[in-house]
């Protein structure tokens, strides 16, 4: 028979039990508000959303898995899933790579702290503000969008712009062609002859500063092997003058390209002078058509259509990179600071180059940190909403949608189908949970 506890032992154990019970009650009292809040804001919405996803849009008819089937049959939802996949693959990979490169480079910069601060500052900007900033930066109009202003400036530096994009020929006055060019003379011209090419549609403020009063075509010195003429603005101040002739006060159009064409081949080219005159020399006898090529009338380069259907997803990802690059850099930089310096110095002593040290020592030692950063960013991009909703214009919103924006649009943004929206929210939750579990396990292992 087992010995029973003596009265003194029981008396000594009772205070310990009471103290332990008191600690448990105190722990429950501290944890209970958090558990209630967690239950009200997380657990209850999850179960409610799952239940709601089993009913139709009105919430009156049970449809079972019908909403989940509809997800795979709706083209707009499938496009959102495709875009979410692009986000998950591209954004975390680029951010982790940029963060790694910047963290390594900032170690060699004298003002590393200031540099990190500048890169981390966008994290202090809300996604709403960041979306507005990049919506303006991506504007198609180069006078408003800074990116297209830069693109247009670079393009115009290395490429000639059209001389007169708004110019057009008057009908029935010797020039034929569609708006935007090219324009050709209706009658053929022989060497030794001259021709006047009158255009309209050019405002006085659009004329080059070098433009001079136009000279009459016959006044241009030519020759037996040349065709001469004048390209001019066929509009005199006050509307006076005769259409089709060079009148006093009418200006030449300098810089206009002119071609002599025979049998479909360009035989000679010239550029109009300040008074609009030109000379097409070196022509063999025969009939020619004088042509103003379409390059004279091409619309000016307006930059890249960042907010168009083809580039809207990369454009929004670019805004996301701007916000989160500092986050990745700081976390990876903290891991980099914990790397044993003796391993790096030993590699340098053995003659390893900086590139070899980076690939074979730095990256492997940072692998746990890089994994945590990557998985954290995967979780974050799965829930991205603000940037997509704000940056993408209405006509291309469907092209930019991800699961989070599609869920909101279906439920509250006009779709009014909270059954399908709830199903999308459950799908999004199921996609996020594995990444969260993976991250939590890694944190526990690193803590152990």
From TrEMBL:
Family, per the entry? Belongs to the binding-protein-dependent transport system permease family.
Give me the segments passing through the membrane.
26-47, 85-105, 117-138, 319-340, 361-379, 419-440
Task: Tell me which species this is from.
Answer: Streptomyces globosus
**This protein is called what?**
Sugar ABC transporter permease
Domain called ABC transmembrane type-1: residue spans? 81-439
Supply the Gene3D superfamilies for this chain: MetI-like
Q: One GO cellular component from the entry?
A: plasma membrane
Its topology with respect to the membrane? Multi-pass membrane protein
The source's superkingdom equals: Bacteria
Q: Is Transit peptide there in the keyword field? A: no
Could you list this entry's UniProt keywords, alphabetically sorted: Cell membrane, Membrane, Transmembrane, Transmembrane helix, Transport
